[in-house]
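Two proteins follow. First one:
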Amino acid sequence: MMTIATGTGTADGGRRAALVAAGITSALFVAGALGVVGMGMVGLARAADAAPVTRYTLDPAKSTLEFQFQQAGAQNKGKFTRYSVTLDFSPDNPATSKLDVVVETGSLDTGDKERDDTLKGADLLGIAKFPQARFTSTQITKTANGYDAVGKLTLRGVSRDMHVPFSFRTADEQGKPAGYLLGKTPIKRLDFGVGQGDWKSTEWVGNDVSVSYSLRLVPAAGH
């Protein structure tokens, strides 16, 4: 027997075909949109990775590295006069940035020679055996108040994790760029063995030391 297609069957087939076509078109549109978004995200990531990193070095004549401590119940302060700073910095991508600081501990100056000689001695900083202290960051992140450099401080041969918070701004000074890094961070001297023998006691010299830094940095040659 011959089967004759009715108008209803033809219409149903046409609707099914239209729905299939619409579904394919929608899927292609969504895939295309996701592809564009994905490419955009990759582009943004690449742009962040490609954010320029400037290497800065210290201008020692216009920088200070100071510390405060308590001695016999009174607040005292001192400074280091010889140290180096290298900052590879990208404000738009701090993850690519790095801070390295080397301090000549023998350059300590509290304004009192007798006290300076004691602090430089074997029971405290031990500069004859440990002439340098060094901080090297492993990560720099953006914070609400600026930036935070996380890394290792090595002092008197002991290395410990440390945070170095700082603010950073740039300035154009007579046509030449400069950067200003400022901040303060606490250190516990006994964590690094700065205090042997009688100096392990905090009766006369406190354990807490506050280190403050106001650094003028200039771009290294070629940056």
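Second one, unrelated to the first:
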Amino acid sequence: MSKTDAAAQRSGSTCLKNAIHKGHFPQRVQRFNNRHTDANRFWCLPTLIKTMTDDGSREFFKTGRESPVGEPVIRGDPSVTGQDRDEAVQFDPDNPESLELAAQTVAAFAQNTAGADDNVFMLRGAAACAALVRGEGSYKAAAGRAGDDVTVSFIRKWSRVHDLPQSIRRHVARGEIAPTAAKHIARVSGTARLHLAWVVLDHDLTVREVRSIASDINDGMDIEQALASRSIRLGEITLTLGRDVYGELRRRASIEDVEPGEIATEALLAQFREDWE
């Protein structure tokens, strides 16, 4: 079982178990069309996201970076990278020496002289790009500071990766989202970038597929439509539940004559709403 699958199993089972104990299940839920269920798994529907945003809880979704530019939030987390915060390089855009280190790091990063297959190295390079932009004031000035081999396009793309929310960057650091795929996820704004990142995890998309979907979204296509055109369903996720949770989920779905995905959506939404309050 991968780390992603294991985490999904723990969080999915715990959240549903809590919802069951608190009675967060609808007595009757309107059916949705074309659902899928299978054995000991269920697929939550995209309604969860839609309902959350419709009731004014948009702030629940963090679509951009919240920590200071250059700070090694993920790179300095030993549970993710194996290195302590003190070991991770921090780039301070307001410190001349740190900014010079950022310029040197970007130059080496652009030349791909070390760590090409190291996701933490890639995140460090992205952090250096973002810090250099902040310190120099523009993409063009940052590229000029880093040297002739560094282009404005290169600086812009990797700075955007650094600006992704922590929830996405953690998967990049773990190697579950390729840094090159993260570059295209970062091209997308708003909650669509989150959805695209989760689809990468749940459907094992290639970098080429991510790039194509990101382009369609930036051309004005809704993400759900962009995915559907590739036979990918937004909101479809496979979870392995604990035996008791699985049994109760199936029992309630049968009694209420609905699909398990509907029960799970309502239960998780109620649980999440408690966290907002």
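SUMMARY FIELD: The two ends are 34 Å apart (CA to CA). Strands lie at 37-38, 41-42.
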